[in-house]
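To: structure desk
From: M.T.
Subject: fold request, one chain
Message: Could you run this one when you get a chance? Sequence is below, nothing fancy, just the single chain.
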Amino acid sequence: MILNFLNFSKNLEKYKFIEKKAKIAVGVSGGVDSISLIFLLSKWALSKNFQIIALIVDHKLRTNSSKEALEVSSYLSKNNISNKILVWKNNKPESRIQEKARYARLNIIEQYCYKNNIVHVFFAHHLNDNLETYAIRKVSGSDIHGLSSIKFINLYKNIIIIRPLLNFSKYQIIRFAKKNNLQWVEDPSNYKLTFSRTKIRSIIKKNKALSFSLKKELNKYVSINMEYNQMIDFIAAKLVIFADKNYIIADREKFIDLPKELAYKFLIKSVIFLKKDSEKFKHHKLMAVSQDLLSKIGTFQSQKTIFESRQRIIKISKKYS
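Reply: Done. Structure tokens follow.
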């Protein structure tokens, strides 16, 4: 599918998830992906009467990062696109730099949106990003959920993340940007082979057969994961007696009758529901809690959540400090 405004709009119109006269935000790094996205979304937002703002995060991880952030901001302003530079002020990591910077960017944007009553945030992840993520997770031994990789839409804390470029390739995005005379900056870290993602990116780029095979596998796991999640949701509907934003009460007898893996998946969904947080779990700790709940009466804690196994029920509640 060619990336143009018509195809982009059709892709978004499939999902009726935004209320009228909404405020939306777009994460903009200044690269070709996010620059293409903000220009497409600005036109789309205008047609829908939405307010839109581009959020530029200055990590201060590189010498020129602040200068680049100002250049991106100036370029967007000249094109009448509202924007805001957000600065990462915490101590910078010495290891797993890309991963920690990615989470920092996400959290800074989420905090800004929460304070400014913005619910929907758009990011420019595309098809090639998804193939790389799938390859990394496959090598690391991820489960069905992990292998379905990046989602078009998902909840993170107090925001809904939407990725409308997931069906478009990097090549298509660059082609769109050049055709529309867009300007963008290149992040030199994208070419450093010291990072595992950039190594995998380089391998996939050079091997078209591998790229095709990964895409085929990814599509299969997306379909499987959809059916798997529907099954977990069905199980949760049968288990849950009561639920609100503070706690969940489930039928203990039905929980005990579940296979261990499904009982564990139910706990994961419960924790995400209560915390509104889909960050990585300390899986070994939550798995231990799951085994305790299946085998004995008592109170257990993990993921800032309290799990109580009583005679007839299991209560899962937020832990308040």
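Reply (cont.): The longest strand covers residues 51-58. Let me know if you need anything else for the meeting.
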